[in-house]
Structure formats: structure tokens, C-alpha cells
Amino acid sequence: MSPAREAFYLPLLFLTVVLLGGMRIVDRVVLLPPTLFALVLGLLLLGVLVKCGALAPERLMNANRPALANLNGFVVLGAAFLAGAQAFNLATPDAGLPYILFSVFFLVLLLNTLAASPDRVRVLRSLVVIFGSAFILKFIVLAAVSDPEGGRLRRVLLALLEGVTLGTLTQPVAHPATGYLAFVTLLLFLTGLALLPHEVASSQLSVVGSRAPTIDN
Amino acid sequence: MVQSLYIRALGLVTTVCYAALIGWMYVHQPQSVAEVTGALSANIGTYQVDQPAFDEALRLFRENQFAAARSGFERADPAHRDARTQFYVAYSFYREGWGRLYNDDRLFTLGLEAANRAVALSPHGIFQVDDAGLGIRTADELKAELESGLRRDVSDLNPLRLFRVRK
Q1: Which residues of B touch A30 (CB under 8 A)?
Q2: Best residue in A1, A5, A10, A29 to probe B by mutation, most B CBs within 10 Å?
Q3: Element (H or E) spanning A24, and its range?
Q4: N or C: which end of chain B has fewer CB within 10 A?
């Protein structure tokens, strides 16, 4: 991994996710810090990435690297952890039954991925599906149910949810820009995850032949 | 190798500055770019109130044109970093919201927010203004007056309230 990617691109990208992930536009702009549960999920996500080889922490920090390089690596790990927490904070509804359901959904999915321990590509695909479906449910489906003006989608959803108490589902109504901002933020986050230094597969090593896996410095 | 070292060091400094900015934004929750730049310049001691705009706003305040005065104060202190300006903003909300029978709670709430800003921006939390035209000269007194105006208790039923005067 190039020094520029490790010292500039990845930390700045993840920190931007930290900033935008907490931004909610209502009647004014509010910055929400991650909840304690989002921090737990962020740590779990980091564990999943390491277990599945999508993140190789030894390529960011090890005894053979200079102190400054290790410091850069530490910053990348810290920023990735906080960005993960904020990504979950962003994708989780703010209140009510959906908040609990989404939190349990994320926890179970992460534990399941940890147990299944897929390879890097599969875990990244799985994260795209997790965050993509959470985005659709929160910013399209729940936003439509919570919209007091209502539209065709709200009427369809109300017909489907007949008998369900809507008070448990509705969310604080946010400015439409919040959804667009969330979309960009999640894209940035997933891009950052794909750019993280990962384990080199053994098949790749055999093709490379004499070129042993090098430790970045 | 040397170039790589420079890139890493510069990257670290940039990242730390960016992280500090994000942390500051989460703590202070700025609402506009002016608040961000104003607070940053106040931190390095270069923030200044637009004095002509402040003087004009003060003239409007003394003529009881409170909404216009607040527009002027906003121009004079767009970052809300000057205790004196925020004190006058709070006072304009107080005077406009004050009523012999009842106070305007919305204006009093906004006034309380401005008074809190004035207190927070003052050294040791004490702000005093030397203005003979004001019945209240300190931010603490103004804050207490606004809080008492927002409070609901039996003294609201006291008929002598009709004879009280606006400060």
C-alpha cells in the first residue's frame, strides 16, 4: 500500500464518513455522535474484516515498520473503527421499534458473518447488501411511512401494514437532503473498506512465486 | 524514502487537524459556515465584530425596532462569538417579548439562548455592560429575568403584575 493512501486517502475518507455519518438535517443541522451500541457494532465489524482477511492489521502496524508508519497505521485503524460506528449509526433508525429491530438485525448479521468467516470479496459483498438494504428500509420505506404529507408509497405501505400501530414505526421526519447525504456517506464508507490493506491470498502467492508477501513500510 | 517520510508526516498532521475540526464540530454544533470560520478565528484571536453594523443595530435597538436591530446584530457578529452583541440580542428578545399580562414564551426562549451565549463567551462567565438606557446591566440578571418570565407559578396570578415595568 502506498504511503499516500495510508497517510492521506484512507484516514481522510474515513473521517469524512465520521463527520457525515452523524449529520441529520431537520429544521437545522444536527451532528449526532455514535451510540454505545453503534460503537460495539463498529468494533465487531472491524473484527469481521480482520477475520475474513478484508483487513490485514499487520500490514498497518508491526515491529518492522518505522514509528511514523505505525502511527499512520494506527490512525487508519482508529478512523476505520469510528467510521464503522457512524455507518451503523446512520443506517439505524432513530427511535421506536425499528431502532431495536435494526440493532438486533445488524448484531446477528455480523455474528453470523464472523462465524461463517467468508473470504474478502464475499464479506465486502455482504456489507454492501447489509448497508444497502438498511438504507432502503430507513430512508425510503420508513421515511415514506413517517411522511405526514403522504404519497402513493405511503398509501401502499399503510395498506400492507394494516393492523400495525404506526406509532411504533414512524420516525422523526428529516429533510430529503439527509437521505442523499446518507447515500454518499455509505458509498464512501464501502469504498474505504475496499481500499483497506487486505491479506494476500495463498493462490496469488503461488502465482507470484519467489515474491514473498512483503510487509509495507 | 525521504519523500515517503514527508508524505507520512504531512498526512498525520493533516489527519489530526481534520479530526480535531470534526471533534470541535460535534461539540459546538455550528449552524453555518460563518459560525465555523468565526469560531476558528476567535480561537486564534483574529475575530472582530463589524463595528459600523453594531452601531447601526444599537441605534435601532434604542428606537425599539427590535427585529431590525437583531438583523443588524447578526451582520455585526455572524459567528455569535461576541458577548456584548449576544447580550443586546438577548435584551432585544426580552423587550420585544415582554408583556404586562403575559410574555411571549418563544421570544423569551430565544432570548435565553442568546443570554446563555453571552455568559459562555464572557471571561469567567461574568458580563457587564455600561449602558444607561438599560434597566438590566449584567448577563446573569438578564438570564434570570428571562427564566423568571418563562416560569409558571402562582405569582402569575398576582394582580399587581399589571403594574410592573419593563426593564
Answers
A1: 29
A2: A29
A3: strand A23-25
A4: N
* DSSP summary character for residue B138: B
User: Is residue A23 helix, strand or coil?
Assistant: strand
- Chain A residues 27-66 within an 8 A CB cutoff of chain B: 28-31, 33, 66
The mean per-residue pLDDT over the stretch B27-32 comes to 82
Inter-residue contact B11 to A11 (CB < 8 Å): yes
CB pairs under 8 A between A and B: 56
Are A3 and B18 in contact (CB < 8 Å)? no
Q: How many other CB atoms sit within 10 Å of the CB of residue A13?
A: 20
How large is the ipTM? 0.81
Cα–Cα distance between B22 and A164 in angstroms, integer?
40
* Distance of alpha carbon B52 from alpha carbon B63, whole angstroms: 17
| Interface touch B11/A28, C-beta < 8 Å | no
